[in-house]
Amino acid sequence: MSPMDAAPRQAPPRINPLQRIWLRELGMERLWLRTPAAAPHAKMAVAAPAPVSDGAPNAAAHSPIVAPAQVDGRRPGPAIAPASEASPAAAPDAAVASTDVSTAADTAAVAPAKPAGLATGRASAIPASILNRTGPPPRPAPKVEVQDEAPPPIPVAEAVKDANLEQLAAQVVACEACGLCKGRRHAVVGQGAQPTRWLVVGEAPGEQEDRQGQPFVGRSGQLLDAMLAAVGMSREQDVFITNVIKCRPPGNRNPKPEEIAACSPYLMRQIALLKPERILVLGRFAAQTLLGTDATIGNLRGRVHHLKADEGVQIPVVVSYHPAYLLRSPSEKARAWQDLKLAAREL
């Protein structure tokens, strides 16, 4: 039995917490703390202190480093032995390992760990709720732009009070004062001679008027032209023709009171600009709107009414049947002829 085999078994040396830390980093903590019984034949070598040059302290003198030794073909394990028993050939390598590990341990003891990603001196300014957050930071709430409410539309009567005929026509085309604008093809402003002797006022455009953008076209228009020609008038030289409602009601239905109220300021402005000698009103709705009454057409026709225009001028007004009604009731044409003669007479 060799002297090495006969040597008494020794308990592993005690290590301080700092040595345990760097042993764990090197992956040697478990090997180091194994009992001598787990490696009975291990040959131990003690790291020799590295030579001191130029007065530099010997790091291995404070922390002896163990070099792993081969144990009968098994995994190497750490061992420690007195310095007198160490092999001289192994001393330089052991000294180098001792110096590196000791330096790392000293550095870890001096410099405290910093949170990852933080700059020096700025950690105290960051709230703990941000330091402890996991995952991406929350997105900022989108800015909600408060849009100013659109100003209320100017009433039609206010918008047209200073308009000329050209401006008035543009306002009619762009008008959205009532729902009729949504279903129209064309707004029908009016058409005829200027200066104007007669102003002929109907109720609302029909299907053909909506298609062409002109008042009284189609069969009703042809009948009206014939009636005017019978008293020596024409829309090209004497008459301006328009309607109370400038957009066609769906299905040629009767105009609603709110539609008449929204559109009648255009008619009143046309009268003020055209200054006709007399007005021929065709149909019940047109007569009631222009004269401000709810009387039937039978009670309104056959006599002369007067409309007070700007500057106190009284314009004679004659009421008659609508040409569309005369097409459905030809027997009423005789009464319509009487109304035309009344309008043509010197008033």
UniProtKB/TrEMBL annotation:
Q: For this entry, list what GO says about its biological process.
A: DNA repair
Tell me the keywords, alphabetical order: 4Fe-4S, DNA damage, DNA repair, Hydrolase, Iron, Iron-sulfur, Metal-binding
Annotated Gene Ontology MF terms? 4 iron, 4 sulfur cluster binding; metal ion binding; uracil DNA N-glycosylase activity
Pfam families the UniProt entry points to: UDG
Keyword Cell membrane carried by entry: no
State which Enzyme Commission number(s) the record gives. Answer: 3.2.2.27
Give the similarity note: Belongs to the uracil-DNA glycosylase (UDG) superfamily. Type 4 (UDGa) family.
Q: What is this protein called in UniProt?
A: Type-4 uracil-DNA glycosylase
Species, as recorded: Achromobacter spanius
